[in-house]
Each structure stands twice: as structure tokens, then as C-alpha cells.
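User: C-alpha cells for this one?
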Amino acid sequence: MPTLLIRPACVTDAQDIARIHILAWQTAYRGLVPDAYLASMDLQQRCDSWEKLLAASQHPVGVAQSGSSLAGWADFGASRDVSAAPSAGEIYGIYLAPERWRRGIGSQLFAAAIHALAQADFSSASLWVLQDNPVARRFYERMGMSCEDLPCPVTLGGRELQKVRYHMQIAG
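Assistant:
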């Protein structure tokens, strides 16, 4: 198995990031998010969005590269929560290609994101996860995060779901 390299994403990674994003959603959220919504996810539209985000360098995105292919990615930065302190960071998303799940790659991406947030002087990190996603919730709990149990509604594909926030203190 090739060595795993965690590195900053570049614009040329946009298509692979978009592909992983869609495949991970279609696999992880099957039965939770309406099938029609998952089937309608458009690769070119998602790729265009990622190209713009990466070109603008709005916030860091890290990728896990194994050989010549990407295994996953994480994006993170300042917390988007309205009531968050300026020292609060957030992991916006961590997604892996489904065939790369349960190989430690997600743990490495999580650790890299937390390290980068600490280096940027954030003293805490949060993230939002769908309440009915027990696999992701267990993962974040294993990573040391605690659920704040503050459900927040989100509508995906016409279905109202609940997301919950996870939180942890990080060292600078």
C-alpha cells in the first residue's frame, strides 16, 4: 500500500475532491437523505464549486493522497456559528472515498485539521454531524469530541433532519 501523504489541496484536486464528496454522501447518507437528492448530486457543479473555493483560498483544505490518487479530504477554519468566539475553529467536513473507510485515513485527516487549527491560534474546534449518523458520531467521539446535544434542523432533499454539534478544546 502506498504511503499516505496529508498535504494542502490545490485547484487541480477539485475534481477528485468533488468525486469523493459525492460518493461519500451517496454511501453514508443512503436511507437517511432522500435517494432522489443523492442521485441528483452533479459532479461538474460540485467540481466548479471546489475549483472556485480552492482558487480563492478562503479556508484551508487538506487532502490525503495515497500514491497518485486522493483518498479523502478535510476542510476547516474559523467557526461559522453566529455565537462562536473568535478563538473557535470548525471542521467543515471530512470525507473519504468509501473504499478507503476504516483504514485510519479519517483519523489522520482529523489530526491534521486539529493541528492546523491549533497552529492558527484556535483554542477549540467544533463540527456539525447529522444526528442519525451513528458511524460518524462514534468516529468523532473516538477522536475526543463531545456532543453538545443541541439539535439544529436542516432540510436535505425536502426531508427535515437534525444535526448536532460536537466540540473539543485544543492546545495551541
